[in-house]
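Hi there, hope your week has been kind to you so far. It would help a lot if you went through both lines with me. No rush at all, and the record is pasted right below:

***
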Amino acid sequence: MAKKRDVILARNLKKTYQMGEVKVHALRNVSLDVQRGEVVAIMGPSGSGKSTLMNIIGCLDRPTSGDYYLDGQLVSNMEDDQLADIRNRKVGFVFQTFNLLSRSNALLNVELPLRYAGVKEKRRERAIAALNAVGLSDRINHKPTELSGGQQQRVALARAIVNNPAIILADEPTGNLDSKSGEEIMRLLLKMNKDFQTTVIIVTHDSKIASQTQRVINLYDGKVKK
């Protein structure tokens, strides 16, 4: 059972994919704990299992076996609709490619998680507050094509925090940005952690990004390297 301060607790996670007649063991008995308010990096070479672990932590997929608790709830055995619900309420995603709706302005993009959650009261106000928190209050009516890469990623970060998630899961959040914009995104992620005690998990290849976190989890061949 998850301890009180553990926002993530995983035990003996295995993930196996069947590729024709070949079984691919993406995760091999991975166990980890992440406490509330931590900033953690997950690193490892291509094929190490980073993406698979991220998908399980973010409730985008289930392990083949093992237990995963998110914010005190056992989620590893949940059905798809249950996973979708807890993913929307508990996880804020920031992707390398931003994943914004091109035809919608910044405000509507940030409102999306609230719409999915059925929130109606003060939805616009909450979205504006999130955009203000990332310094984009003057860009709420701009579409992604009218924003720089750094500004688009800040919209994505506002979308990630608008539901007050238990964790922000950032997958290579600075990968498509210039160095200055990347530094700004890291500053904002660390600020969210400091101001709101939001747990931040960053999947990255960049050792400079990882060095700004409190702890690094290294994956090799589907296992956590001790």
Summary: The chain is about 35% helix and 30% strand. The beta strands are 6-19, 22-35, 39-43, 65-70, 73-74, 91-95, 167-171, 199-203, 215-220, 223-224. The chain has a mean pLDDT of 93. Residues 5 and 35 are 5 Å apart (CA to CA).
